[in-house]
Amino acid sequence: MDSLARSQRGEKLAQVVMWSSAALVSAVFLWMLSDLVTNGLGRVSWEFLTSSPSDSGRAGGIGPIVVSTLLIVSVAMVVAIPIGVGTAVYLAEFTSTESLLGRLVRRSLDVLAGVPSIVFGLFGSAFFCKTLGLGFSILSGGLTLACMVLPILIRSVEVGFREIPDHYRLSAAALGLSRTSTLLHLLLPAAAPGLAVGLVLGIGRAAAETAALIFTSGYVDRTPESVLDSGRALSVHIFDLSMNVPGGTPNAYAAALVLLGLLLLINGAASGLAHRWLGRNIATL
Amino acid sequence: MSRFRVDEGLLWSLRGVAFLAGTIVVFVVAFVGWEASAALRSVGLSRFVTDPSWYPSEGLYSVLPMLVGTVLVTAGAVLTATPLGIMAAIFCNHYAPAFVARPYRRMIELMSGIPSVVYGFWGLVTLVPLIAQVEPPGTSLLAGIMILTVMILPTVTLFADSSIGRVSEEYTRGAAALGLTRWATVCHVVLPAARPGIVAGVFLATARAIGETMAVLMVCGNVVKTPGSLFDPVRTLTANIALEMAYAMGDHRSALFVTGLVLFLLIVALVWGAELAGEGRARG
Amino acid sequence: MKRALVVGGILLLAGLTGWLVLPSSAQAKRTKLVLTGSSTVAPLAAEIGKRFEALHPGVRVDVQTGGSSRGIRDAREQVADIGMVSRALKEGEQDLLSFSIARDGVCLIVHQDNPVAALSDAQVVAIYTGQIRNWKEVGGKDAPITVVNKAEGRSTLELFLHHFKLKNSQIEAHVVIGDNEQGVKTVAGNPDALGYVSIGTAEYDATHGVEIKLLPVGGVAASIETVENGTFPLSRPLNLVFRGEPEGVARLFLDYARSEEVQDLVRNQYFVPISRR
Known about the structure:
Shape of chain B: globular
Mean pLDDT of chain C: 84
CATH class of the largest domain in chain C: Alpha Beta
Low-confidence stretches of chain B: none
Number of helices of chain B: 11
Radius of gyration of chain B: 23 Å
Shape of chain C: elongated
Number of domains of chain C: 2
Number of helices of chain C: 10
CATH architecture of the largest domain in chain C: 3-Layer(aba) Sandwich
Helix content of chain B: over 70%
Largest sheet of chain B: 2 strands, antiparallel
CATH architecture of the largest domain in chain B: Orthogonal Bundle
Largest interface: A-B, 91 and 93 residues
Number of strands of chain C: 10
CATH topology of the largest domain in chain C: D-Maltodextrin-Binding Protein, domain 2
CATH class of the largest domain in chain B: Mainly Alpha
Strand content of chain C: 15-25%
Largest sheet of chain C: 10 strands, mixed
Structural class of chain B: mainly alpha
Helix content of chain C: 25-40%
Number of strands of chain B: 2
Number of domains of chain B: 2
Radius of gyration of chain C: 23 Å
Oligomer: heterotrimer
CATH superfamily of the largest domain in chain B: MetI-like
Distance between the termini of chain C: 71 Å
């Protein structure tokens, strides 16, 4: 009887610990969110989103910075998608787990996924900016980010392909379809969920990045006229406003709120799609 | 016949693309290594560990204090985030009613997407002054650990959540039928079965913690010294690069690439460790 | 639904690619002037650049920050058209021409609530080398001093070390900061901190409600005025440097940056205009 009472007390204790640790995690999240909202919301307006920063970003808005961010992310995705989808198709459909190339590629992608973003920044500034002579530019930044988002993109597309039931492939083979047309007409559309999730996740990863962009896409806070111009990403802008510009904190709050809102939106979309179509959460893809 | 040629062409182009994706990592190492080689030659490998400290303007290049900083911040964050994350995952699966668990999971997933610069900014304006009231200067190992904990918590939680969720209901029903309490079921049945997924999540979170730059740079104080307490400032390898890169030339710049190389080796060791852990479990 | 998404995605990508490629053809007509270097000068140079662009619609002025040494190197290797340097040129750097556009000082800052009103040079040295560790010893309250130092490569650090005849390895810091504003934030958030930053930054923040106080150096109050009349000991010129004889757009820009027309911009950044000295 005594041991039963003890285990019941243990159960009560466990319950309390569980609820309070869960409450702690939510409290931190809500604390941060409410802090950013109360300090930043007053400044966010259509005007803020579209006008140019003036007086080093203390006044004015973030229009050109939003444009630069979108351009950098687009460059990254335009470059990463063909390579990512091609690699994922190869890994999922055309190679066994024993093949040498497949194993090597997988292993190197595992390492690539772990490489810190600042190391990508070093690489980008040495390779794209210096060796290829692209200088501080949106193109350099975008290409650097493309290398960075590749592993996550490949993972999700591969999962998308693996979710396709085998009878698709078998019936296609029985009908005498070539592998090319099986891939184009049957598998690629069926793997669209993985592609969509990977795309959204990649965009989210790229839009959140700071460290890799400081040395590659630079600080210029005006609307870029081409991808060879330098352009400041939103995250770099927040960093600069909070660390380098006296009196930049109010606008840093507002810019942080905008970036946070954007990423919560992107991430919400990614997790919704991943749950509905792939039946898993976004971290474990 | 022509159909075969198309297939061959497709296969070879896919191989080419996969090869390209696989070589990126080689490119990264090659270029970082190439830039680092100048300092490795003129300063010498040994001095990166034997010099008394890191003062590039005086020709001192030890990366050891920063390596210690990275290890301490990472270890602190992983040790705090792992139990918290596992508990949050257990909470979702076994304690919370569905109408709490669902939004809670969604919230954690949203947290995983918050950019590091936002965490850093918030830490700088809110957390650091709070810590400074307890023990100045506020920018400290502790602040770094706290911010990193919040940052890697979603990764640990989501991995644990999905692998705990996969433990079949039969197991838990059986345990309940045996008269085990919910807590005993979780401890003795669910967690052991879910271990591989949880470990994988912890390894991934560790890699994220090692590589985190901006948030750590903003809250850690960045003094190149081995910290004596939680309230002492530290500089991590990543912060070292971000802080000095734009200002560095010659050997100093090259030495920062050496720092990058050290970071890369840490990650390779970690991936290797994760693989060994996975294999060990598969055999055992 | 899925198919529509895929088609939509492809269209979106195609559109983006078009948007990316098209504008680059318009680029050829523009003249680009690239400035790199000191993060202290960069905000001012960017503001001057904006006004300059308005006057010369065919020109684009790009400003990238780094450090003074980076400005020197980039100007020398002609990676950038003009370098920004927040100190006087050193002996080995006479191959470059320098054009002062403003003056700035470096001052010590403490929290507003700190009762200490002044520190002698000897006291500053003792605090930064760790011989004095408590405010009590210099007439303040009983609290440990938080020493804020600058990261390697900053000319603010060089100027500070040079003035107090210190070596960076002698300094026992508790916080190492990158840019000025980070220093101000650190001191404002910590009643026991002592740091040094550009006077421009400090005065801007102090007059905008940030809780910091500027300490005099060598008995001279730290302010824009004392820098302007030349009595403040820790001051420096903010320079634009150029290799060779500037001509064309670079010449125009260098002249414009030193003209009366940009004095309000210099003052807005809390620096001292050069032409009045």
